[in-house]
Here is the input.
Amino acid sequence: MSTVTVEAPGGSTTTAEPLLSVTGFTKRFGEVLANSDVSFDVRPGEVHALIGENGAGKSTLLKLVYGMYKPDSGEMRVAGEKVAVGSPTQARALGIGMVFQDLRLVPAFTVTENYALALARSGVTIQARELSRRIAAASESYGLAVEPDALVRHLSIGERQRTEILKVLMTGARIVILDEPTSVLAPTEVDALFAMVSRLRAQGFGIVIVTHKLAEVRAIADRVTVLRGGRVVLAGTDPKPMTDAELVEAMVGQTVAALPAERPTVASEAPPALELVGVSALGDRGVTALHDVTLTVSPGEIVGVAGVAGSGQRELCEVAVGARPTSAGTVRVSGRELGRGGPTAGLTAGAVDVPEDPVNDAVVPTLTVLEHMALGHLRAFLRRIGLDWGRVGRHTSDINEKVQLRMAPPHRRVADLSGGNIQRVMLSRALGRDASLVVAAYPSRGLDIATTRRTQELLLARRADGAGLLVVSEDLDELMSVADRIAVFCAGRLTGVVPAATTNRQELGALMTGGVAVPAATPAAADPVPTAETAAADGTGDETATDAAAVAKDAQTGGEGS
Amino acid sequence: MSSLAVDVLSGAVVGGTAIMFAGLGETVSERAGVINLGTEGCMLGGALAAYAATATSGSPWVGVLAGIGAGAALAAVHAVLVVARKANQFAAGLTVMFFALGLTSLFGAAYVGRQINSLDPWDVPGLSSIPWVGEILFTHDPLTYLSFFVAPAVWWLLYRSRVGLLVRTAGEHSEVLLVHGYSTSTVRYASVIAGGGLCGLGGAHLSIAYSNAWFENMTVGRGFIAVALVIFATWNPLRVMAGSYLFGAALALSPALQARGYGINQFALDAIPFVVTILVLAVLGKRTLLAAPDELRRVFETRTA
Amino acid sequence: MTEATIPAQFSPPDAATAAPPPASGAPGAPGAPGSPAAPAAESRLAGIGRGLGRWAAALGAALVVFTVLLLAKGANPFTVYADVWTSTFTNTPSIEQIFVKAAPLLLGALAVVVPARAGLVNVGGEGQIVIGAVAAGGIALAFDDKLGGGLVVVLMVVAAMAAGAAWAGLAALLRLTVGINEAVSTLLMNYIALDILLYLIYSPWKDPDGTGQPTSAELADPAKLPYLGMSAVHVGFVFALIATAVVFVLLRYTTWGFRLRVIGGNPEAARRAGLPVALLLLSAMLVGGALAGLAGMVHFAGVEYKLRTGITTNFGYIAFLASWLARHNPLSVVVAALALAAITVAGDSLQLDAGLPAATVNILMGLVLIAVLGWTARRKSGGNAR
Here is the structure.
């Protein structure tokens, strides 16, 4: 996800005895075989990447190693000794430390109090002063800057991650497992993280890093293991000589068709799908989270939104559909000013959304899929008394036919659906209708590669129909391949709007961290249509853009890979 | 004859004590993420147990222990329902309240009108002769003096001790406890039961130190006031202490005025503590909920599942 | 988080046909949710059987504990049960009493059911019942000997429902404007309502001819609810049954009911779907309060005829428990209300036959609830299918 410059010590794959080795782990949940005969090991002083799609069994494997699940069969050795890990506490005692993706820190506590939960195991008080001295000392010796007295709530994601890693080290971990550590970081923060990881490697720690970003695998990992469908399909291989196509194929088990390169310009007389003029808005904690944003999405245009997590994307999406009041400025959807009308005004004006956090913001667990389809467009199904459920049913099957996202059956309660299946409901609902504005936050979250592809096709199809789309993603490759223009946010401000076809990671990265502001570009209709040629040409400046997008470019332009 | 202000304030201190103990207990429970509407029941149970044990043993201190035990036992029922069985916290609490109401009327009938050796006021030598302050603070029963220490002690336990850290973690982000090898259930059981013990102590103060009598449903809503008090004290034991004196004052106003022959309707005065509670909550508004422990806030937000 | 990056411009796409699903049956794979509906009926029957079994076990356990407590009190549980059984269930007046008590309980329970559908906890039934009775009493004092029978009863019903709705609506407004949790505010308002009643019957409305405990003057005959046929059951029970049917239809078949269910499940989702959340919450609470107010009127004009200190005898709280017992299902509430009414009547027999305080039955009620809350149907969500 970034221009990673960290060098892996060449050929550092030592032959030392593994710190941790797992042989033949099998774990079954009901009918689902989550892990099947999985073997995996980490040696001292190496970084071992674990990659795979959603549901490939990565988290199950991590939880087995960390003692949160018990394997049905298989054995585990730590430093050669056979062990049975029954709980995270035992795992920690064996020197296994885990940095969870959603960082298990209590926001209301200080750093010291959080550390006390892990480190102060007895005694009446937590001896905060003594502990904070120890933290300061460890912070110095590992080179990880951590402020013991800060409230975790006030730390950035990157700082929290650092805090969590230092905590894990202080509990005596020799094996550090990082679960998708980069998914929430800005490119520069990723560089800092990898520098930190390299230092730990040099100090002899064994590091497992779970990721799905191929550039990172190559940048940091000495070995890579790929899981698919609960099985190891590629075991402990040096990723350097592998092409990304090989890695993707290992993950997916098939080649995935590319998005069409041709993007016809959509001519439309309609007013802009979305028009924000000088919009500011408060975040949930009452602090201004969106500052003076002016942005236009034309009909037949996809505007991507990039930024470090928490840069105002959530507020932007909510403001665009009327779900969050503005503190200044005007919002127009298809020429109609939303004003104080709230979500109703947004819906009436023709805006639909795929929310960032469906479980909290859009899903009613007790209702069925069918009822959610009705809820998305209640007014259309009203009868004299109650709702016309027959019509909702027909509408739902029409949508299913049209979007082909294999949504769960209509009678299923949403509470029983997995995250990926909930996302399918959200996507079907938003993309199956004729809306003039589609606001999609992280549309491919929780989806497998094939469905992600289908979703992107649907976004493009809506574009072709003349809808304006605002698409938020943390995946710059996705944005660069789907969007016409990319709006970049930093700390709630729009730092630039760049044409997707001619931008690159450096430029986006700089804007994401508040670098050079680029004046807002003209509406998309005037922008050049992105083509494979221009995209590939831009890729040349980016040596380490070694992930899928680059491979695709290589394949099309006959390049020889990086 | 002492001034009205001194009367009311002195009455506030002694009258607020029962609510303070209950409020402190509820604070501990809620800090761990469990709201206990059974507080009312725990107080009733504590009041009767203390009264009965005092009557039987002749020692009010045995009564105090019995009160604590009864409150803890009733809270344990709540804990089982909500922690182990994941029942709705509001419904479970009211059920416990009901259960306690029935139990105390069944077993309490025999004690109505019985005389006991109560905890009598004891003037603190020296301090009680300080003008105004002495009369307000140092002419009370021993449990009231105890409350002066219990509130800061609860604060210290929650914010400075290791156990308190675990309790607060259970209320903020219980998953973190799990990750660090602690059991959320154990922490919550302990907090709810300990909180119930404090409520029982509050009940004991009511029956063997404040009213020196037992009658059916003698707490008349004090437990519910304690629950509200904890919210507007933003889950801080020291503010609970201050708030309970506010209620004590509201309670003391009625007898103090009547003693001076003001013809104010008694029932209007009886309603004052409840009206005051609602007014204070209204004035503080939504800010209070923002200060709630995260997991407790979720209890408030999703309720009828 | 996005698990996999989609390569941007791969080889030409296979048109619009969706790619085949991944080979494995991994969790979250699209094939998983499609379980067929056929075996649903069978498992549903089995589920009902299991549910009944658990219920029986829960009730049995509650009875066992109650027996132990009676023993501890020195009463012979078997004579107590036998006496209570004969005096509660084997004579017509007692059985009629069950229906008489079930009327306000059923209405009070519906007052919990409706707000619960929107995720609100109305613990204020007690206060709303009192206020309903007070309003009916006020109308009666002013008009019961001036207007025709039918008209005064109608006026009393309207006033009681309006007053109950207002009392509950106040709690809803407090929640919507200043964020006071309604479980807390309705509880506190119960005590205020009681103090209002006491104030009225101790001074302005006090029956000058009354002796002993102060009460209001007795209702004039036209304002008393008529009996059903030759029985001692007044028409209040019919009111309650009609209310149940109306609530059932409202919740199940109207858009309003659907919208309340959305809010109950996730208020934020409701807001984003453009529902007027504040208005809907207020309406749910108003309807609940009106039902509780009606309960107060029915009990007052059907049984008590005078406002007095202990007029509600905890009906509001018992009704709250009835609603939970029935898991907020408007039809099950009828059964729950009758069951709890029977226990209440048994409590009166207990007092007469065994010399135990009437409130003793609260133990049994508490135990039943504890057993039901803890040991039956432990599903996390109560929303039944449409």
